[in-house]
């Protein structure tokens, strides 16, 4: 006769399956009439909102990469706290204010339609906390690599100032890539939009240590899944700010 699984073990397996099914039960993002509005260009019929989001994000990433709006004397400071704060303010405008204006005044839509809301916090908060805990030893291990430590060993700054700079920098970035772009794509092409939205996010990391650059597609997809599951960019933004603050704090001692 076959061996029966112990009741406790069978119950634990069922609980795990139930939990996984619950986590995979993300909300639907149906397109409304405005999302379905299209434009014909040279015979191509394209969803207008998704098209605008892709063009805007591409241009914004290019402007940010070329540092077109950062004065030369600020660029000369390298990664000094003053230069990082200026860059965070630039991104607050380019990554945050600009797409937000397009959503409100161009799309005539609500920011909450693009992840600017609390969302399913009962899922988002614990998953963000678990992710932060899991990433802490990974960050510590990465800082054993000389090139990784050298890149993030910037001039020291008070922790509160460092956190504020990262919030001004990374929260708008989360809105640009996984709010404005990803939620527009979700309503145009479905879940594939989660993956597509990570491409400009990866390109925005050009110039950073190679191990970080190549891991960004996976990490960005995790952030994208979290935002899809919760309907909010808040939880990925919190995790992103924590991880970058931890990296810089450990690298600078």
Kindly summarize this structure in a few lines.
It is built from twelve helices and two strands; from the N terminus they run ααββαααααααααα. It has helices at residues 7-24, 33-36, 48-66, 72-75, 81-106, 121-142, 146-152, 159-189, 192-196, 198-203, 210-230, 234-252, and strands at 38-41, 44-47.
Please provide the ordered H/E string of secondary-structure elements: HHEEHHHHHHHHHH
Overall average residue pLDDT = 92
Largest pleated sheet: 2 strands, antiparallel
Strand order of the largest sheet: 1-2
Unreliable stretches: none
Number of helices, where a helix is a run of at least 4 consecutive DSSP H or I residues: 12
The domain tally reads 1
Radius of gyration: 20 Å
Give the class from helix and strand content and strand pairing: mainly alpha
Keywords for this entry:
mainly alpha, two-stranded antiparallel sheet, 12 helices
Explain what this protein looks like in three dimensions.
This protein is mainly alpha-helical. The protein has one domain (33-252). It has 12 helices and 2 strands, in the order H-H-E-E-H-H-H-H-H-H-H-H-H-H. It has helices spanning 7-24, 33-36, 48-66, 72-75, 81-106, 121-142, 146-152, 159-189, 192-196, 198-203, 210-230, 234-252, and strands spanning 38-41, 44-47. A two-stranded antiparallel sheet has the order 1-2. A hairpin with a 2-residue loop joins strand 1 and strand 2 (44-47). The longest helix is centred in the C-terminal third of the chain and has 31 residues, at 159-189. The relative contact order is 0.14. The mean pLDDT is 92.
């Amino acid at each position: 006769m076959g061996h029966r699984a112990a009741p406790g073990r069978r119950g634990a397996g069922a609980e795990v399956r139930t939990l996984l099914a619950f986590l995979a039960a993300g909300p639907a993002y149906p397109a409304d009439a405005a999302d379905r509005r299209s434009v014909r260009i040279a015979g191509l019929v394209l969803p207008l909102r998704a098209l605008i989001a892709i063009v805007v994000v591409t241009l914004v990433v290019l402007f940010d990469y070329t540092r077109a709006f950062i004065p030369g004397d600020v660029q000369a400071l390298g990664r000094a706290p003053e230069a990082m704060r200026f860059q965070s303010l630039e991104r607050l405008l380019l990554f945050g204010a600009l797409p937000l204006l397009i959503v409100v005044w161009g799309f005539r839509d609500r920011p909450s339609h693009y992840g600017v809301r609390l969302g399913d916090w009962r899922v988002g908060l614990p998953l963000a906390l678990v992710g932060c805990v899991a990433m802490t030893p990974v960050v510590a291990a990465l800082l054993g690599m000389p090139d990784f430590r050298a890149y993030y060993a910037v001039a020291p700054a008070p922790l509160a100032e460092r956190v504020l700079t990262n919030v001004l920098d990374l929260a708008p970035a989360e809105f640009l890539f996984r709010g404005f772009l990803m939620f527009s794509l979700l309503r145009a092409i479905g879940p594939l939009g989660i993956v597509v939205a990570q491409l400009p996010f990866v390109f925005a990391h050009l110039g950073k240590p190679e191990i970080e650059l190549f891991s960004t597609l996976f990490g960005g997809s995790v952030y994208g899944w979290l935002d899809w599951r919760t309907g909010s960019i808040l939880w990925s933004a919190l995790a992103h700010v924590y991880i970058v603050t931890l990296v810089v704090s450990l690298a600078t001692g």
